[in-house]
User: Fold this.
Amino acid sequence: MPSTICALATPPGVGGIAVVRLSGPQAYPIAERVFRPVRAGRQVRKAAGYTAMLGHYLLRGAEMDETVALFYRAPHSYTGEDVIEFSVHGGHAMVQGLLEALYLAGASPAGPGEFTRRALENGRISLTQAEAVMEIISADGRQGAALAKSALDGALARRIDGIRAALQTLAAHITAWIDYPEEDVPELSDAELAGTLTAQKQALDALIDGYGAGAVLRHGVDCVLLGRPNVGKSTLLNLLAGFDRAIVTPIAGTTRDVLEQPVMLGDTGIRLNLFDTAGVRDAGDDPVEAEGIRRSWKKLEEAGLVLAVFDLGEPLTAEDLDIARRCSGRPALAILNKQDLAGQGDAQRLAEQALAPYFRQVLAISARDPASLDPLCRAVSELLGTARLDPNAAALCSARQLDAAREARDALAEALQARAGGFGLDAIGVCLADAQRALARLTGEDAGEATLDEVFSTFCVGK
Assistant:
């Protein structure tokens, strides 16, 4: 019989209320030992599911804090077990007192993610839904939260089930054709075979292609501001942050170290972890500035997004072009700043032509003008792929899922290659079996203990 576990389900610290969750086969007997209802005649053991009682919890027989108990009966609870949630005042002493009372009454401390793991083991949720739990807890933006909620609601599981069903039907037809030639099994047409394989591979390709954009919405992205001194990097940081975060002066080299600031990028739902770096130039004999420039190049290597800033009021220099070359092949935007001073004309066209080979997009703005924020937000959203992502659609939400989806996709690609190469249906059947195993691993049906331990090690204790 599994143990009965308990843990604080709300963040530790001082607050209005704190919730302690109790789950397991002995939840009601344990609760009866520590909870005394205010209303005479009320009994914990007789409490129906989805009801509440007001009372007090007891620690070693002494009445402690006023408590509201919420009751859930198996299997209609989060874990699929009997569950009781106690709400007490959100101070450390009262919470620890309640946990101590529950331990003395026979409950065991819950491990990381143990409540959700029990929900999985009791068939309440799939592994993809379990992984979405922590994603929705940690989401910073509404779009990222919507993406995680979609997975929690089962959108990904349903999408994968649809792919698996199509492959299972195809595999069954192939098996029947090969193993039972004496039966009147309809011949599998080449068009039907190719159509099914191609359609399901494309479905997996779409999930895989959307992973990066989904990760950006859920977790944000490290963004480095890079450029020569005095091109407007710190001014751009202040525009994105919405306040004067960085010191801006006309003196070259004002920023001599990496300055960090998290921001939400307009209404895109993207959290940028902005890094304003020292201006890149020949530092001469100044060891402090040289170290700042070294850190600037290091941040370029680490960043998931680069905003390379250039001064539109001056011709591009050799240092500018070196920065552009280093940005080539990276998710980078070229920002032509100080458009308000330079205006539009030959200088802008020449700069755009010179930088276009190295960047996905070249955008002219004025970092001092708040009106420049909207086009910059749109450009970043397009570059990172979030503009094309439906937050309510099925999406992969972990590296484990991505790896399994790639394995399934590659198996289908091999099946298409086998068909094009003139191999028999038995070879294609092997590829289909590989794809189905990978998809079963994605949904958790073939997940071993090591995989589950890895997934739930990232969870907080109360969930």
